[in-house]
Amino acid sequence: MKLSALLLLLASAVAVHAEDAPKPLKVLLLTGGCCHDYKAQTGILKKGIESRINAEVTEIHVDDGSTKPPLPIYGNAAYGTGYDLIIHDECAADVNDEAIVKGVIQPHVDGTPAVCLHCAMHCYRIGDYTKPVGSEGGPGSLWFEVLGLQSSGHGSQQPIDLNFIDPASPITKGATNWTTVNEELYNNVKIFDTAHPLVKGKQGNQETVVAWTNLYGDKKTRVFCTTIGHNNTTVSDARYLDMIAKGVLWATDKIDDEGKPKAGYGR
CB-based contacts of 215: which residues, under 8 Å, 6+ apart? Predict the structure, then answer.
């Protein structure tokens, strides 16, 4: 066989292989708001996820340090169209208009998976969020039902001892307990029946669930959450990024029981 013919054959084989390969997961990352270095963390998360799994992360970031960051998704319930997963990493503690909150959760009502990080747990609070929501389906429980856990606050920043209580989960399989730098330990006001705790965190005598999965709504939409991730040092930690990447794979059903990416979704 002539060299030119051989090269043509090889090129055709490569083209067919590329055509058959799974397309990257389309991930939307939302950042902005109070109290965090979102400008840096957006880049850390994008690079960390894309280097670990077959995903393309699109960023929507507003450089606004208020508790009402003007994210362009507000008022657009179809903002998740075309994405396989949405990462909520915003800090919008005082965005509490019911119509806006319903628009934020609409993609997840419709079945789009989510990963929710740190201050996302303290967003979209309607009514007295310090008390356990009494009636699911009411305005006060809208966002907390997506998360699967209700939190209202945290104490001072101190190291958190992380204890992986479900080592069999694909998200935590192979992970070992570790201690963070100074971080915020979020409280647990209510854990919903749809949630499954994965990791507990301890500061002194206080211990709470800090990572979990949730099956939300009628479509059992997959949601992975962690309250860890205030400081850049933690967000940059390979162990943290491993967990987030696995959370993305779990939520999109692209991870096997051994915690390995399904064919075509690893790096």
Answer: 148, 194, 221, 222, 223
* Longest pairwise C-alpha distance within the chain: 77
Within a domain: 13: no
Answer whether 0.90 is exceeded by the pTM: yes
CB-CB neighbours of 72 under 10 Å = 10
Residue 49 counted as domain residue:
yes
Count of domains in the chain?
Answer: 1
Question: What is the enclosing helix (H) or strand (E) of 14?
Answer: helix 3-20
What domain range includes position 194? 24-251
Beta bridge partners of 112: none
Helix H or strand E encompassing 96: none
Residue 241 CA to residue 225 CA, distance in Å, equals 13
> Could you tell me the CATH number of the domain that includes residue 84?
3.40.50.880
Place of tokens 């008022």: 75
> Is residue 4 assigned to a domain?
no
How far apart, in whole angstroms, are the C-alpha atoms of residue 186 and residue 204? Answer: 14
CA distance 259 to 127: 39
- 253-258: long-range pairs with CB below 8 Å, 24+: 253/222, 254/25, 254/53, 255/170, 255/171, 256/170, 257/170, 258/170, 258/173
Q: Decide if 173 contacts 161 (C-beta within 8 A).
A: no
Please list the pLDDT of the chain residue by residue as tens digits (267 residues): 454 544 454 444 444 344 578 999 999 999 999 999 999 999 999 999 999 999 999 999 999 999 999 999 999 999 999 999 999 999 999 999 999 999 999 999 999 999 999 999 999 999 999 999 987 778 999 999 999 999 999 999 999 999 999 999 999 999 999 999 999 999 999 999 999 999 999 999 999 999 999 999 999 999 999 999 999 999 999 999 999 999 999 999 999 999 999 999 999
